[in-house]
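Researcher: Re-running this chain for the archive, since the previous output was lost when a drive failed. Same request as before.
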Amino acid sequence: YLLGTRANIALQEIPLITEKSKNEIIYGYNSYFAKRQISETVLQKIERQSVTRPKAVAVSWEQNSLTYEELNEKAEHLAAHLQSQFGKSQQIIAVITSHSVEYVIAVLAILKAGYAFLPVDPEEAVNRIAYMLKDAGVVGVLTDQQEVLSRKDAVQTLDLRDPTLYANKNGRVERTDNLDALAYIIYTSGSSGNPKGVLIGQRSFSNYVDYAVDAYIKDSSDVFAFFTSISFDFTITSIFVPLASGTQIRIYKKSKQQYELHSIVEDNKATIIKMTPSHLALLNEYDLSKSIIRTM
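Model: Regenerated structure tokens:
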């Protein structure tokens, strides 16, 4: 019709589908609407689990585990130490670790202290890490990486493996839970230049976690696999959705011997895996007939 009435029409102006089909695809197929009353931060949801399910396993890795009570206690002690080092006003603390239990404790401690966290993969290029730390205005770094500790960064760096960080058992953590405060910063890949930081507020964070709990968690026995880089945005799901719902995180550490996805299938303890389409293609290589994975 357009070609018959407008001889000089530009190619980009020619619609490939009708307006009705376009509306159905954009608004019909994506019509997920839920009116949520956001009254708690994600941290408050997690802390409630430490009261209602204190002995339930919150995090496990290899043959080790932490209950919700133990995880909350470690994060509380670290938060007290952070406040003694960096003060009580909102600050941004970077976490540079592998996917590990130290990462889980660190991000919870940062939130407990009233700060926002910046997750950084230790395998990122040194100049990229330096750029992100400066751009975000980071005041401190928490890490379990010796290489990071050896660098002379402009900010204070604390070793998460140091037991004295968790020794402040009598320290009182002072914080005000504010849904309008900053929760964390995540950086883009920077494929078109310098990486760009995206600021995620507590309200948006809480709203997303509520949605994801409804979408992914089907049973109180669910176990969420944590195996991806902490710099990836969807790793946020693998950490905070299980903790906010009282289920379990299962950590799969990076190995030179085999890919983490192989470890997950072989271990056969995770019921939920958050993954990319490329990960999904790799699953075709495995026999999943006896796997307990039920959500991907």
